[in-house]
Inverse folding.
């Protein structure tokens, strides 16, 4: 994909890319380089000097039960967030697609949560489930259940999953609806004439044809769960109780900023970098091979 | 859906409305909470309909807040969001222009450098970026809030994709008319890209406004708080004594601009989302 | 195999009625072509028979059963869509087998039917390809194959040839006709192309504005059109309409328009001819020429002549073949010849 006709200029293109390159170098590559550098050093307790330790920070991390737990927590968290937000969104999108005339209105009403910051989503859900004064807590108490996510790790995970997924439902809904509406009606009608009931049509025709969208959303949702949910965790649980909701990105923050363990935090950043890299490659690889019907 | 007879339609609408209610009720609670007194909240159950203290609570939030008045925080958020949005748009469109319409040594390198930034969300580089910002004296400042978030590979790619679809004849006609590259850029390329720029503006604005982690790190003085990160600061360590009505009022105000943008510019928003993920 | 019957069928969308009462009796094995301009309601009618649209009033019966309340899959019909509507993610074989699998037919019976349809439609080499690897004509055949394997009571065709190029269209319409003859399945075929209607139909239904203006064998509709619309729609080049003042001999009581087909006019010398005028322009088609003649009331008559094109402006006369003039009243309906 190359433009055949271009302009001639010695210096202009450099001037044009300069701003972006400048910011990119100063705020992306320099810090990234720093992170890699720092990950190989162990700062002394006073932060005055550091000692080169090579890959020791990394090996320590992989042996650290807290870090391993954080990996598991992140995996569990991302899976749940992705599963919940995608299935609810798909369900709603299928329903909205059935409604021929109203789907535009439903779409308007369902997509605005996307605009809500994850941090605010966290505050809202925290408010509802506050162990002492939350409305939902009150209802649960009325049904005999004592909710306290400050003490109960499972409840804490549940709460952050719901708060994170809640926001993503809009995004997924939008894409699923677009994907569903892109399937030609006549193909659905042909299946109906061939004898397929709604359920059968969904699983044998609609879902397979939706698979590019589904795969794409899967990747996006996992990336979202990995990174953008920091705000939710920070506002609701602060990673707790204990480490029960400390996902990888949160741990980088906690160890680096709160714990001042720069070497470990840097090493964790580098590991995260690899993970993002893989996800990004998967995403781009897949987009290259997007199936067209 | 093919089947038009029977209860199917009614049920469908019902469930959809239920879904919308479920999605909206956290906001509803927050709104109600922002209109009642602290006492009403601390003694559950909180009433489910709005109370009479709307003006009072919002005024208090606006003028005092908890550790910074909401008016200040809204201002900071606006400066940050608009700064990042315009910044991203400006530098991305210029880079895309350069990469698409010029052949120069190092072009491929530039392209890949920009591409690689996709793999470096801010969360992955927080500590060193913070150190660099500190070194450059950017803590607690607007440039500090804005600059590290400004380079955007997605916007650059989008513009590149867009420019690729513009016919070559445009450039040829411009050259024949005696227009140089910047003229072409201003008079022809920009106007043709208007809708895409608007669509991207919506997405970027929401993204910038909702930033949390980076503003959290780079601001230590309450007067530089943005509204989205500032809310967390309004919770004291023992949250039973949090000033809930004011916090909820702040939350409502924090949500207002992005939601308004999504609702009123829905078509552009949807277009922007779908285009930017291609 | 079955009969199809439409009894006073009406369709409204909200307050707007689009089909104003259509009656049709289709015999077993007949190929009925429903033809008309865009918006006349022909596709809507077909979709009502299929069950893809609800019926507002009247009854539709297939094989003697009233099907108004039945879903498409309960009606024992098969449909060929204008854009083929093949399942893009399935091979040709799977596309053909889909309906049969749903009907829980045994595997070897499915295989047998698929093979039979593939042979009939020359799809044998393509069974394992996906639709996007096929040409338009091949996809059309797969769409028909899908209908054939189900061995339904009736076939419904919704403008199946509109998306093909002209040459392919000619070839396919002969194949569809032959196929239908061989299988003997009752068929409803919708098109806007009157040539398809003329060449394929056992009987033609000419629709206009939600009403069936005439139902009959093609040649009957051609020779004895029931209304101005039918006369002008069927036949190419279209029938000439002229004011009765030009041919006073033929104007009967109440006739407001006369109709003569171009092939029923002959060019003669202008002197003493029943009709005369000047040549406006000529279209030379090769085998014959269409001469457009401007009359003195400024209307244009088209004459099909076997000679060479004439000079513009030349005076020319026309003779009328006896018994071919049709008269229409003010309401557009056919009046009896005087």
């Amino acid at each position: 994909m190359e433009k055949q006709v271009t302009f001639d200029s010695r210096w202009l293109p450099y001037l044009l890319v300069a701003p972006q390159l400048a910011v990119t170098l100063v705020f992306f590559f320099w810090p990234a380089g720093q992170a890699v550098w720092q990950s190989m050093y162990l700062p002394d307790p006073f932060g005055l000097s550091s000692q080169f330790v090579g890959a020791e920070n990394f090996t320590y991390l992989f042996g650290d039960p807290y870090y391993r737990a954080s990996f598991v927590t992140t995996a569990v968290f991302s899976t749940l967030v992705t599963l919940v937000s995608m299935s609810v969104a798909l369900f709603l999108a299928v329903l909205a697609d059935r409604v021929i005339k109203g789907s535009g209105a439903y779409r308007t009403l369902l997509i605005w949560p996307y605009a809500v910051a994850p941090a605010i989503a966290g505050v809202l859900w925290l408010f509802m489930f506050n162990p002492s004064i939350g409305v939902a807590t009150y209802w649960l108490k009325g049904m005999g259940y004592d909710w306290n996510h400050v003490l109960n790790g499972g409840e804490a995970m549940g709460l952050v999953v719901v708060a994170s997924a809640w926001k993503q439902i809009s995004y997924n809904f939008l894409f699923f609806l677009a994907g569903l509406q892109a399937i030609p009606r006549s193909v659905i009608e042909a299946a109906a004439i061939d004898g397929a009931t709604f359920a059968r049509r969904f699983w044998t025709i609609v879902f397979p044809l939706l698979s590019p969208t589904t795969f794409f959303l899967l990747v996006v949702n996992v990336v979202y769960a990995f990174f953008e949910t920091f705000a939710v965790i920070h506002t609701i649980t602060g990673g707790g109780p204990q480490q029960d909701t400390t996902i990888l990105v949160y741990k980088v923050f906690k160890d680096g900023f709160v714990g001042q363990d720069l070497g470990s935090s840097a090493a964790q950043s580098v590991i995260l970098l690899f993970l993002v890299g893989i996800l990004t490659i998967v995403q781009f690889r897949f987009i290259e091979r997007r199936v067209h019907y | 859906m093919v089947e038009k007879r029977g209860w199917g339609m009614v049920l469908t609408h019902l469930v959809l409305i239920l879904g919308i209610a479920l999605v909206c009720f956290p906001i509803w609670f927050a709104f109600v909470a922002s209109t009642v007194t602290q006492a009403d909240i601390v003694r559950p159950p909180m009433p489910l309909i709005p109370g009479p203290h709307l003006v009072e609570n919002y005024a208090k939030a606006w003028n005092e807040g908890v550790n910074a008045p909401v008016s200040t925080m809204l201002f900071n958020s606006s400066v940050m969001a608009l700064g990042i949005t315009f910044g991203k748009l400006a530098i991305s469109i210029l880079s895309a222009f350069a990469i698409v319409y010029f052949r120069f040594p190092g072009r491929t390198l530039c392209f890949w450098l920009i591409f690689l930034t996709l793999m470096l969300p801010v969360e992955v580089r927080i500590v060193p970026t913070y150190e660099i910002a500190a070194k450059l004296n950017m803590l607690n400042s607007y440039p500090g809030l804005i600059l590290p978030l400004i380079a955007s590979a997605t916007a650059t790619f989008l513009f590149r994709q867009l420019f690729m679809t513009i016919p070559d004849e445009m450039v040829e006609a411009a050259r024949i008319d005696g227009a140089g590259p910047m003229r072409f850029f201003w008079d022809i390329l920009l106007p043709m890209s208007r809708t895409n720029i608007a669509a991207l503006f919506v997405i970027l604005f929401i993204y910038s406004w909702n930033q949390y982690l980076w503003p959290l790190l780079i601001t230590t003085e309450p007067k530089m708080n943005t509204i989205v990160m500032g809310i967390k600061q309004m919770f004291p360590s023992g949250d039973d004594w949090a000033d809930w009505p004011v916090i909820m009022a702040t939350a409502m105000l924090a949500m207002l601009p992005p939601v308004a943008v999504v609702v009123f510019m829905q078509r552009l928003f949807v277009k922007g989302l779908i285009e930017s993920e291609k | 195999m079955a009969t199809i019957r439409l009894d006073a069928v009406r369709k409204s969308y909200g307050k707007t009625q689009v089909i104003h009462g259509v009656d049709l009796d289709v015999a077993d094995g007949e190929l009925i072509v429903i033809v008309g301009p865009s918006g006349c309601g022909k596709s809507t009618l077909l979709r009502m028979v299929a069950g893809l649209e609800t019926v507002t009033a009247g009854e539709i019966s297939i094989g003697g059963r009233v099907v108004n309340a039945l879903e498409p899959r309960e009606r024992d019909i098969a449909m060929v869509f204008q854009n083929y509507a093949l399942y893009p993610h399935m091979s040709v074989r799977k596309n053909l087998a889909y309906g049969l699998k749903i009907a829980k037919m045994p595997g070897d019976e499915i295989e047998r039917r698929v093979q039979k349809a593939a042979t009939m439609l020359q799809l044998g080499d393509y069974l394992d390809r996906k639709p996007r690897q096929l040409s338009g004509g091949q996809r059309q055949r797969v769409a028909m194959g899908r209908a054939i394997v189900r061995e339904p009571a009736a076939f419904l065709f919704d403008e199946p040839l509109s998306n093909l190029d002209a040459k392919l269209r000619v070839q396919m319409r002969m194949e569809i006709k032959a196929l239908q003859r061989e299988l003997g399945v009752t068929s409803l075929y919708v098109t806007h192309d009157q040539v398809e209607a003329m060449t394929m139909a056992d009987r033609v239904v000419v629709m206009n504005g939600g009403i069936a203006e005439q139902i009959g064998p093609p040649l009957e509709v051609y020779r004895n059109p029931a209304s101005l619309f039918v006369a002008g729609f069927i036949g190419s080049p279209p029938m000439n309409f002229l004011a009765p003042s030009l041919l006073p001999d033929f104007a009967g009581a109440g006739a407001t328009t006369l109709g003569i087909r171009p092939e029923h006019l002959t060019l003669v010398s202008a002197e003493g001819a029943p009709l005369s005028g000047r040549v406006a322009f000529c279209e030379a088609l090769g085998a014959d020429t269409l001469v457009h003649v401007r009359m003195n009331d400024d209307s244009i008559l088209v004459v099909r002549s076997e000679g060479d094109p004439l000079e513009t402006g030349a005076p020319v006369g026309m003779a009328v073949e006896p018994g071919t003039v049709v008269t229409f009243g003010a309401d557009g309906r056919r009046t009896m010849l005087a």
The longest strand of chain A covers residues 41-43. Chain A has one domain: 67-288. Residues 65-98 of chain A form the longest helix (34 residues).
